[in-house]
Amino acid sequence: MDTKNFKVNSEKSLVEWIGRKVTGAHNGTIEVKEGTFAFEDNTLSSGKFVIDTRSIKILDIDDAETNAQFAGHLASDDFFNSDQFPDAIFEITHAEPGDNNSYYVTGDLTIKGITHSITTTLQIVKTDNAAVLDTKIVIDRTKFNIKFRSSNFFTNLGDTLIYNNFDLNIHLVAEAQ
């Protein structure tokens, strides 16, 4: 069996996030800290990547003071508790090849020390020297103890309600080791 390992290049990789609320949405980026993927006989066999919750940036708020205040709130215990839980981790537990460079992937997602299994479709373009992986993961934040302004836990929120699901658009560039 021929195994080839790839290491994620943090400088070339990026996670974009979108969170929605009744009155609109916010978006930004999160840095990828590290990651690895392995292919056995040119088929994805395992993988793991880590994002740094302390690196959350907000792209849609131009006012520096408001942006810093919001970033601080996202880092607080109301959301990601970044001081205590700086890493969010996704580890593939099963990957099944599909058509057109896609894989049907099940993995363990850990946020705030809480782990849940999720499924997604992963697009991979691979050469001998590099692999580019793209996926979109929709996450129910309440499963990870992120309850702030959630209708699951609070009533009469009106236009201050924040929807439970948020999106992570993940772009990873990995280089052969």
Count of discrete structural domains: 1
Average residue-wise pLDDT:
91
Termini gap: 17 Å
For the largest beta-sheet, the strand count, sense and barrel status come to: 8 strands, antiparallel, barrel
By oligomeric state, this entry counts as single chain
CATH architecture: Beta Barrel
* Order of adjacent strands in the largest pleated sheet: 1-4-5-7-8-9-10-11
Q: Give the helix/strand class.
A: mainly beta
- Strand tally: 11
Share in β-strands = over 45%
What does the overall shape look like? elongated
Low-confidence sequence ranges: none
Helix content: under 10%
Say what the CATH topology is.
Answer: Lipocalin
Q: CATH first level: which class?
A: Mainly Beta
InterPro entries: Lipid/polyisoprenoid-bd_YceI (IPR007372), TTHA0802/YceI-like_sf (IPR036761)
Domain Lipid/polyisoprenoid-binding YceI-like: 5-175
Pfam families: YceI (PF04264)
Protein name: Polyisoprenoid-binding protein YceI
SSE blueprint and pairings:
Blueprint: E1 3-8, E2 14-21, E3 24-30, E4 32-40, E5 43-52, E6 57-58, H1 64-75, E7 87-97, E8 102-111, E9 114-126, E10 130-140, E11 162-176
Antiparallel strand pairs: 1-4, 1-11, 2-3, 2-11, 3-6, 4-5, 5-7, 7-8, 8-9, 9-10, 10-11
Organism: Chryseobacterium wanjuense
Domain Lipid/polyisoprenoid-binding YceI-like: 5-175
InterPro entries: Lipid/polyisoprenoid-bd_YceI, TTHA0802/YceI-like_sf
